[in-house]
């Protein structure tokens, strides 16, 4: 462990934070943008193909999203070594995370291939949709190791405060997929017409190209590529806490969708529109949280506790201001923005309730997401797990299921989401003020 040395460090300016956050935002936004393009291409094959893509995409997203610790956990560990001036050790965290990504990826491919038929049938209720989705799933799931390798690559590169190369790698991979997708789906320029399966092949090629670029970045660092069990164990321990945290989020949002569906088509449609906007805005704010992870981890690795606190408050202020501006924009646009997504009057009538909850929550989310980044950068994964579980069990889930029991509708569901955010604010705010996350060194 490096000895703490609270020496002066260069001030964290808005330009420095933006220099890390903007490329990170590009990486976060690249996949949703590509998926919209993929949706548009497949959509011209008809409703059945689109339904098959929806089911297949749900399987792939659910499988790969459980492993986000390969990115966030690796950033926290790598940033500490980088801050301590030990770049080889920082990159070494990326090497071990990449081995872990490959091992977990191969295991997940085997499990999904074995369970693909009953899994897809259960999700699609059998029939033609399941028949359409199954080939897509069998092809696309072979990209899971590549997705996880890219996540690990993003993790260590953010740790060494390089968010530009990951953006290039990810954009290149998705660009190749975007070119291949219509060619393979429709059989253009002499390519075979694969229809929905062509979407899966295009996806697969782009993911593996990006993964190869991330692996190449490790190789050129000239760091040992040997497996180191001790580091792997430490990464798995942190990963365990972050996986539980992710599962808590998913349990909440799946429950919210299921309950909204029981209040009718208009309610679930309104809920889905506002939730997708919420997810997009969360990506915007999460880019600032990624900057906080990298900068806080580096400061703690260097033993610069005062600097770490300065980073935490500076990023939190920026994130809160950004969230407040977004809230003002969506408040002003309330009479107009919903009609961009639907012209169904019943949905427009229902959308008002979640819309104003979204507006009210955004400033709170700005603080919460920034402090999430600070605490994840400090490696405080166990506390983050416990805080998320407590907020879900005390706030979100009870109100969601009470909404179903008492017919509170979207008012109850979004009250649950707001309570969840407020409880998280209380937990992470207390932790940040307590200073218990200020643990110097690389251990």
UniProtKB/TrEMBL annotation:
Keyword Membrane annotated: yes
Similarity annotation: Belongs to the multi antimicrobial extrusion (MATE) (TC 2.A.66.1) family.
List the Gene Ontology MF annotations in alphabetical order: antiporter activity; xenobiotic transmembrane transporter activity
Compartment annotation: Membrane
Q: Which residues cross the membrane?
A: 17-37, 43-63, 97-116, 136-157, 169-189, 201-221, 242-265, 277-300, 312-333, 353-375, 387-407
One GO cellular component from the entry?
plasma membrane
- Give the chief site where it resides: membrane
Q: How does the UniProt record describe the way this protein sits in the membrane?
A: Multi-pass membrane protein
* Protein's organism: Mycolicibacterium flavescens
The lineage's top-level taxon is: Bacteria
Alphabetically list the UniProt keywords: Membrane, Transmembrane, Transmembrane helix
Recorded protein name is: MATE family efflux transporter
